[in-house]
Amino acid sequence: SPINILPTDIACDDAVFIDLAFTNNTLSIAQASLSGDPATLRLKPTAGTGALYIQNKAGTLLSYGLNEVVYRTPSEHSYNSTANAMEAQMVYKVDAIYTSYTPIQNIYVSVMYNASTDDDDRMFSAMIGALETRTEENLTATALTKAFNVTFSNLHAWDEGIKRPISFLTYNGTTTDGNCTTGVMWVILEQQFNVNATALGVYKSVLDGATGININARGVQNFYDVKVYRGGVTCNDYFGKFVGFVVAYAVLLIFVLRMLN
After folding, report:
1. Cα dist. 127→1, 54, 114, 115, 130 in Å?
2. Which of 29, 44, 162, 195 has the fewest CB atoms within 10 Å around its CB?
């Protein structure tokens, strides 16, 4: 990971379903920092802020808790060789009671953003506001890597913007920083969102000030034998199945009529 996903490499798999949920708190508090090499904005939400529910191929319903949100710009993953302005990677860890039910302990959910005058991500906007205050005080890597608290209101509104059932692409890969740990399930939402272009520009300038360069943790990797599947509403081709049924029925009917004649 990450990979460039080609439309021709996607297979259908309607056995896996996911859903995301966020608390409806009027005020949430999280801790953010610029960390890593190169520096990347990371959000550590308070416990219980978000959850992921997944029904795997075996039909088992599992739950994962939101542990971290990492913002990459430009996006690490690309689709048909085209990257997005930003990719938010939401890191979920399996709840303790389900650890023995699945080999997948971590699920990374990628949300793709396009630069716009609109803004669909309140977490990111809140952190950029806090970052602007810090950078005005001291634009140094040392100062920026110190964690700071961020507050944001009504995160549930972003949750309500997700179209359901959720359409997504998924594959098994690795983390994109650190030791490139294996055994990670990636879920890339097909629905895309908007990020405020001005806020994104501030983030890019902060990254440049902290590291001298603005790159992601890891470049696009060779595809090799990675299998990418589509799940959710776009997976089931009901129209195609219906047409196939009609054609097969018509052929059978013609054959029977000829036999009777």
Report:
1. 26, 29, 18, 17, 5
2. 29
- HSE-up (13 A, CA, CB side) for residue 106: 16
pTM over 0.85: no
For tokens 């272009």, name the residue: 197
**Residue range 110-128: average pLDDT?**
83
Region for 188 from its dihedrals, namely left if φ exceeds 0, alpha if ψ lies in -120 to 50, beta otherwise:
beta
CB 81 within 8 A of CB 8: no
In degrees and rounded to multiples of 5, residue 244 shows phi and psi of -60, -40
Residues 171 and 229: beta-carbon distance below 8 Å? yes
What pLDDT score was predicted for residue 39?
Answer: 66
> Residue 51: which of 97, 99, 16, 90 has the closest Cα?
90
